Structures are given as C-alpha cells and as structure tokens.
What we know:
InterPro entries: DUF2267 (IPR018727), DUF2267_sf (IPR038282)
Protein name: DUF2267 domain-containing protein
Structural class: mainly alpha
Organism: Bradyrhizobium diversitatis
Order of helices and strands: HHHHHHHH
Number of strands: 0
Number of helices: 8
Radius of gyration: 15 Å
Shape: globular
Mean pLDDT: 92
Low-confidence stretches: none
Pfam family, one: DUF2267
Amino acid sequence: MSTGVTALDHSVQEINVWLKAIDEQLALENRHQAYSALRAVLHALRDRLPPEVVVKLGAQLPIMVRGIYYEGWRLAATPTKERHIEEFAAHVARELPPQFPLTALGAARGVYEVLWEKLDPGEFEKLMAHLPAPLRNLQG
Length: 140
C-alpha cells in the first residue's frame, strides 16, 4: 500500500522494519504484539528520562516511531522516580495489553536490543547513562 507521498511511504517502511526486528527479537506471534511491546517500553523509558534527554532520544527515532514515543507524554509528569527493575517492569506492564505473551521485563530487554541495533550506539549509551544502573542493564 502506497500513499504516493515519498516521505510517508518511507516512514511506513521504517516502522515495519522496526516492528519486524522486535517481532523476531521477542519471537512474538504478530506485528500488533511487536507494536505493543515497542510502545510500552518506549513510554516507560521516556517517562523515566529527564525532559531534555527525552527530546534527544526522540530526535533519533524514525518519524512513526517518534509519534508512538511521544504519544500521551506529559512533560510535568517526568521523570518518574523508578529506580528498581520491578518498578520499571510494572510501568511497562501497565502499558502492555492483557494476556501479553511475555513478561514486561522480557519485552523491555528485547526492545532495548532493537534500540541498541537501530540507534547510534554511542548516543544510546549517553541516553541510558541518565537511568539508574539497574534500568540501563535490566538485570537484577
């Protein structure tokens, strides 16, 4: 399906590449689940970062991924104070649909892997440095 607008068609191709990568990384059943995982993890990550870092990360994302990332963002509510994996996982879980086939932490690990692959690793590391160590590594 083509929109006839080159920039939009390219954006659709990019989001499909991202969703396919997440689908494969997490061994999900469909692209909708990949979208749900991407959205939940991006929102939890965004909500935990300081506003200036949120904007820096957003600038690195493809247009459609950026739209997902910023959806519903409230500047005044960030950053959250989550310091522990369990709190971050609970944030991700609140964003995932009921009966999601993976744990929130499993989804977060997979999306982090795709972010690492798709974004400039040096820039991603700088962004992640703004998180407490447990949330950077997602290890207990």
